[in-house]
């Protein structure tokens, strides 16, 4: 059994030669950079909680390949119970960190690769599934962090991959060798890749018949030659570099997942790490598998994040003397109602899962897409209520240095303080936390992570069985199967059938 400790995770990252750029500058070691530290800290929690007896049941499980105890973040879902445990794990981690803990993209990408490689082998006589199982055993036995890389830059959205002016707008194979392939392109919005051990590359869309070079799924070490991370800006990111933690918001764990652009500048991938190579007709299914699992997740992780936000909003109400007001209580109830609705759908999607041909377990697609669709609204709605209750000081509060400058500190404290019992800096920290976890970066992530709202609506229409619903309606209206002998006015007589 190998369950990395948080310290081992950090040390294993330090050993990697990751090529990364932050703020336009090359970074020697990502583990030593303050912009990445909160995101590493968050992932470290996923490792830490697996060693905590109170959470072992949720954070660990048994490998179906080796029978060994493994981290749940390296597991292939075997049952509805597994899927439910995953959602519970996400809520726990959301409650512990108040942010995105990054490992779920890789987890769902691994599950998509596992399921699709089996189906490709069945249809095409390839040996991808065996390769993937061997790769997975290494991930499980070393408890590695795998970042999923799906979203291509896409260039001109009106054109398919093969029609782009620049063929690199979608990751593709530029050379096929006896012992592997060379890939080129980039993936955007890559969550956690910069502090991962491995990058699992999946196609970002369904590919057409003439797009075999774009039908590529493969695993690349994060420090492989040619892999370059360019870290994205986040709301208020320069505050991380100011050194004062009171003014940042969530200084220990940061805001969302530390997303980066990851460039594949002619990266060689040996055959044993290639899990799809040209099988275009399986690309849509692989993308679908990933997206469906990942969309259900949001009821768990955002549920945990919202718990912390609701807590911060309630605590701020106490500080500001409004907690007993019935309108404040009602708005807190509304926040909880919105939050529990999405969590309940995520649990429902997991409880109503079904078996895939490879034997792993898929969530209910209709419910999973509904979860994510609701997240694109409810995270904004919960944030709006939090802003409403917290007040305008979130947007106008002077910075932490103003509370330290002896020339003005007295005034700033005096006019921010509520009363003698309350520590003014507690109010400041709560306000800053709310400001950050409801920031643009967080909201946009809730809108577009795991696919933009319209992507869910397309699946919902496909899954919604409108034909069946029409028949149901006509049967209810015109049906004649009432309990015999009951006089129902307006019902059609038997003869009318
Ligand atoms: Fe996991 Fe949620 Fe972050 Fe996705 S957004 S990686 S599900 S914590």
Task: Please characterize this protein's 3D structure.
With 497 residues, the protein is α+β, with helices and mostly antiparallel strands. 46% of the residues lie in helices and 13% in strands. It is built from 15 helices and 14 strands. The strands form 4 sheets. The chain has a 6-stranded mixed beta sheet, with no helix packed on it. α4 packs antiparallel against α8 (326-351), α7 packs antiparallel against α12 and α9 (365-390) runs antiparallel to α12 (424-437). The protein is globular. The mean pLDDT is 94. It binds iron/sulfur cluster. Iron/sulfur cluster binds at residues 100-102, 104-105, 191, 257, 297-298, 301, 449.
Kindly list the characteristics that best describe this protein.
alpha+beta; six-stranded mixed β-sheet; globular; 13% strand; 46% helix
Instruction: Characterize the main sheet.
Output: 6 strands, mixed
Strand tally, please?
A: 14
What would you report as the Rg, rounded to the nearest angstrom? 25 Å
* Oligomeric state, counting identical vs distinct chains: single chain
- The general outline is globular
Strand order of the largest sheet: 2-1-10-11-7-6
> Helix content range of the residues, please?
40-55%
**What is the distance, rounded to the nearest whole angstrom, between the alpha carbons of the first and last residues?**
66 Å
- The assigned structural class equals alpha+beta
